Structures are given as C-alpha cells and as structure tokens.
Amino acid sequence: MGFRFYRRVKVLPGVYLNMGKQGVSMSFGPRGLKTTIGPKGVRHSFGIPGTGLSYQTPFRKIGNASPQSRQAKRKLSPEEASQISLQNDYRKLNLGFFSKLTCPTEEKELAQGVQAFLLRDFATAEVHLQKASCYADGAFTLGSVYLNTNRFVDAEKMFSVAEQLPEQIGMFYKKYDLEMTVHLAVSPFYEADFEPSALASYLAHVEALQHLNRYADACSLLLDLYKALPQNLDVILSLADIVLEREPNNIQWMNAIVNMTKNLDNESYAHAVLLMYKAEAFDNLGMIEAAITTLSTILKKKTGRPVEFLLEVQFQRGVLFSKIGKNANAIKDLNTVYAIDPSYANVSQLLAQLRP
Prior knowledge:
Elements lengths: L5 E7 L2 E6 L2 E6 L4 E6 L2 E8 L4 E4 L10 H7 L4 H15 L4 H6 L2 H14 L3 H9 L5 H13 L3 H11 L8 H5 L6 E6 L2 E5 L3 H14 L3 H14 L4 H14 L4 H10 L8 H16 L3 H12 L7 H17 L3 H14 L6 H8 L2
Antiparallel strand pairs: 1-2, 2-3, 3-4, 4-5, 5-6, 7-8
Helix pairs in contact: 4-5, 4-6, 5-6, 6-7, 6-9, 7-9, 9-10, 10-11, 11-12, 11-13, 12-13, 13-14, 14-15, 15-16, 16-17
C-alpha cells in the first residue's frame, strides 16, 4: 500500500486549500455543499450533515466541452442557423410580467406582430401590426407583410408611412436585440438580406413600385437615395437594373450608370453584377470594346460567383465578340457555355452561324 499525504488548510471561512500527492486543490462552500477545483477539474459535493448521506459528482475537466456543447459548436447549415436565429428572436419577444405592465399597448402589439411575421403567419401579423403602425417599425414590418402577400398597393403605402420617420426604422429591432433580416431581390441576379433600416424600407418600397409598374417613381426614389448614399452598391444595382430594362436607348441614363460605376473593382459578387450592368450600358452606348473589357474583368475572378451568373457573363462576351467580327473568340466563349448547358439561351444557333 502506498503512503497517503493529505493536508487541509483553512484560508477563509468556507474556503479551504487542500494539499495532496496529486497536487493542490481549492474547496468552496458551507458544510454539506462544496465545490472543489483542482488538477482533475471541478467536482461538486452534496451532503446532509449528521445523516451520513452524501453525493459527489465526478471530476469534470475545466474547458472540456460536453457532448451537447460540442454538438452546438459544429458548423451549422444555413437552414439550421436561420432556424436557431428565428427561435431566439421569438423568445426575446416574449415579454415578461413587468414588461407587460410598463410597455405601451402599441409596442406589445408590435412584438406580437413581429412574432407572427417570424412564423410567416401573415394574417395574424397584419392584425397586430395594424394596431402598431404609429411606430415606424410597425409600418415597415406591415409593409413587409404586404410585400410577402403580393398586396403591393398596401405595401407601398406602409413603406411611405415608415419613411416619414426614417431615423426610427430599426429602433424596435435594436431594442430587443433581434437578428431578423429582410430578404430582398435587388435585381434578377442579386438578392440580399438587410437589417431593418431606412435603406431596407426604401429598397422594399422600390420593389413594390416596380410591381405596380411605377418605374418613374421607383427611379426618383432611388436617385434621392443615391444622393444620400453615393457609394451604396445595392442602391446603384437597383437603379441600374430598372433603367437598363426600361430605358436601354436613353443615352443620359447609360452615361449615368457608367459614371456611377467608375473605378469599380471586382471585389464581391455585388461588384461583379454591377460590372455586368456597366458592360451592358457600354454596349448600349456602342462602346463594345469597353463592354468586352469589363466582362473580362468579371471572368478573372470566379470564386464565390454563381454558375448561372458566370454563364451569362461568358455568353454575353461571346455575343459581343461576334458583333465586332472576332468569331474565334466568340466561338470559344460560346463553346464554354454550350459545354455546361447546351440549352442555354440561343447558344447552339449562334454557334451554328459562326462556324465555317
């Protein structure tokens, strides 16, 4: 049998320093309820003085994750992360007893409306949010409900109400520390999530106006926004998308797009989409070589770009090469597209025309 060494020193009332062969540990707590921290980790002891009854948990290494925490630390899929975020936001809006006593009625309605919106229960959300539309966030969220249910006239009205107090849009979401975002299709090639804000309201407002075929109003709103945020890519993307579709022969608009995108680098997917629009503006101005150079800039960086987008860029560059008689270059680009998707646009017909 080996020798046993153990010594216990009282440091403070309820705090002991334990010295043994395996090292030094520290114990905390009153009689019958101790926590020990030492080389083996942490252990909790429970006992009823005078009865002889006690229980000790096994030592647990400090910093070792439990199976549950290890599972939580694994990389979540976007769908799982979104679901967790939704659940967290929903819980944050469960107002406590005192909050219910002190919170204004309209804010309680807004909280319930946002909860219903998170669950995509738009009918219930509308009932609550109509009672909270005096808040900028109430009107903004109600506008989002209408946008999701294709009630574009009502959506446009609600966004207009919210934008009367643009600095207040998002305040409710920040107060409750919500992670909710608004998903918007800025253009056919580019969608993004936006935090509730004046920018999100204006872009959603533009989307509603487009559905109502009120393109002039949408452009006017975006121009005002561009003056306030001249470097914002989402604003320029939205404006370029509208004018290229509606006013492709308007030289003034085409020059405006080229000027808005000068010195633009291919830094992100948003930059790449905007460069494609810039190339289209060059093409509409008859500056085909400039358009080809711009599209070539996009194709130099393909990481993080959707395949469908890259196919469109390659296809458009092939079409432009054919316009200026560079058939070998055109065939090379169009063959690349054909190899990936033989049914893409009219690529097979173009190749048949270009081949000797």
